[in-house]
Amino acid sequence: MASLPTLRIDKLLAALNAAEIGQHPVEVHGALVGLICGGVEQNASGWTQPLLELMNDGQALPKELQALIEELYQDAVTRLSDTDFGFSPMLPQEEESLPKRVEALSLWVQSFLTGIAIIQPKLNEASLDVREVIQDLSEIAQVEFDVAEDEESEAALIELMEFTRMAALMCYAEFGPDVDDDEPIDVGVLH
Q1: Which region holds residue 27: left if phi is over 0, alpha if psi is between -120 and 50, else beta?
Q2: Which pLDDT tens digit goes with each residue over 64-94?
């Protein structure tokens, strides 16, 4: 299994910058997880094109960046489908300032909502619980970045991060594939 997504932000940021794609790694991860949780076909042709549309106007990515995205995809599918692996949104480490982490969470959630909406356009027909979660996520996406560096704000961020994590898992449970325990998921890596 690959390293936790939070440990790869710098590498992904460098690849995005080299490809002149003006997105932050948390946005890419959020959109990718949104597509997966929305029920995108879990093969290369199912998830790649919608992500390219969101990231790069449908254009192909440089090989290094494509490889990083494929690794991120495989990691996200594994972590979402098996709770033992501990899914969590790709966010900066605690060493970053609280306002930067709050902004990153907001960006991740915005991208997640965009990704899920592209694949699941009838969110208004989802279960009541999922509709409420989506509504709550839309409020998290608008959170203020100007927060005090104190324990109360830190605790609030941790609570929002946990809510976001559980919301993604709930959406995946509702829209993701029905998988037999004996059948592995085809994560469709492009080569």
Answers
A1: alpha
A2: 999 999 999 999 999 999 877 789 999 998 8
The answer to whether residues 185 and 42 touch, using CB atoms and an 8 Å cutoff, is: yes
pLDDT digits (tens, 9 = 90+) for 113-124: 999 999 988 888
The answer for residues whose C-beta is within 8 angstroms of residue 20's C-beta and 6 or more apart is none
Amino acid at 12: L
- Whole-number Å distance between alpha carbons of 76 and 90: 10
Q: What is the DSSP letter of 125?
A: G
Those residues with Cβ within 8 angstroms of residue 154's Cβ, 6 or more apart along the chain or in another chain: 98
Residue 9 CA: distances (Å) to CA of 49, 92, 104, 126, 134: 22, 7, 11, 32, 25
pTM above 0.85, yes or no: yes
Sign of CA dihedral 87, 77, 90, 172: negative
Higher pLDDT, 185 or 144: 144
Euclidean distance between CA atoms 157 and 105, whole angstroms: 9
DSSP symbol at 79: H
Q: Which residues of 63-75 are buried (b: 16+ CB within 10 A; e: fewer)?
A: eebbebbbbbbbb
pLDDT grade, residue 182 (50/70/90)? Answer: very low
Between CA 88 and CA 67 the distance in angstroms is 21
